[in-house]
Amino acid sequence: MVLSPQSDERRRMRRNIRLGSLGAGLENYDFVVYLYVATLISRDFFPAGSSATLRLAQTFAIYAIGFLIRPVAGILIARIADQIGRKRLFVLNVMAMSVATVATGLLPTYVAIGWLAPVLLILMRVIQGCAMGGELPAAAVFVSEHAPRDGVARAGSFQQMVTFIGQLCGAGVAFLSGLIVTNLTPDTPSLAWRLPFLVGGVLGIVSTYLRRKLDETPVFTQRDGNALAIRKTPVREVFRKHYRAALFGALIVSTLVIGNTAYISFWPTYLQISLHIPATKALMTSFISILGALLLMPFWGRVADRRGWRTALLCAATISTVGSVLLLTVLPALPADSSVIYWIGLPGAIGSGASIAMVPGLVSSLFPAEVRQTGYSVSYNLVIATIGGVLGLIMVGLVSLLGVGTPMYVALLGALISVIAAVVVVRLPRYLGVGARPTNDTGTRAGDAALGSIER
């Protein structure tokens, strides 16, 4: 059957949105699976004589290094992408991430080579941080530019959902690896943290293959016809002409970091060190929370497209507040063997997921096409560097000071930021989506037809 040009264009648009999102999901798995085996890594990469809290703090400090390198790498990659296109650096990103992930799974431990073990672990995290710094902003902009005018939020939320499927897979693989080691290979406990990294390497190969099938976004394929200016110094232009958008973008990204840390990434570690929940049960609890949050992300995209960003942000803040207050009331009284623990974090995770779902579309819409990826990368990576990597470390310390309510207090701060963002968002110009300034990159007819079926 021969497709008409319009049908073929719609098919290619759907494929670009799906594959652009899928690649980000696979790379996110590689980067965050570290968190789900953090307690196991802390035992193998630092002296056994150190306290468990110190070893865990050192492990999170190494995790933070991957975040600290992301701004420099991400902004440099974004600068090139705004000049030559979004697609060309995707394969390089995923290859670097895959090599570092496989190498992490093969590293010798502290018992074998002493302090060289954590040094090599740091090196792998630096490589992963470079790859991830360019990946998520690139994927968000790529998907948003392929979306139709009235579907930018939904396309971005779909990409975010797939990204968190990668995180969900990380929790699932870590959980299964723990079961395998416990029941089949108890004499090789290091497999519980090695297997998730090795699986990530296989996923990286799949992602590399998929990236070859992507098309460049319409903004760049139509550049000559639209006479879209190439900015030789996009970073300078972002700070000179779009600094308000960059600051607001950073505000939005901070809700992602806070929500993701409080109720998703830090949650299993928190359950283990604060409530003394067994590792397998804590990982299953995290699995349920991530699943509930990501399944509703496309819904929040629809809310934003139909009701506006302000309404969607206020909904996210309300749900996160209710979930946090519920946890503050119920969690301290729950016994460690209660089955309610599996579900108690779900309301807070859903509220955090609502904020997270809006980040790709909203931040992408804040900047014109010629500096869009640079603007996104500046907003995203500066927040990731300043609080993304260290928030988990800070929360380890806060648990000792504030007790079991620590994640909920942090989440309430995120809800407050969402309310502030809801007030400010209507005052800023936007360049993508409904209400955008009239430009040449606000969507295509093919995109309008395509987005309706990306979830079919």
TrEMBL record:
It comes from the Bacteria. GO terms for cellular component: plasma membrane. GO terms for molecular function: symporter activity. It is a multi-pass membrane protein. The chain crosses the membrane at residues 21-40, 60-78, 90-113, 119-143, 164-185, 191-210, 246-270, 282-300, 312-334, 340-367, 379-402, 408-428. InterPro entries: H+-coupled_symporters (IPR051084), MFS (IPR011701), MFS_dom (IPR020846), MFS_trans_sf (IPR036259). Pfam families: MFS_1. Keywords: Cell membrane, Membrane, Symport, Transmembrane, Transmembrane helix, Transport. It is found in: Cell membrane. Residues 16-433 form the Major facilitator superfamily (MFS) profile domain. This is MFS transporter. It comes from Amycolatopsis pithecellobii.
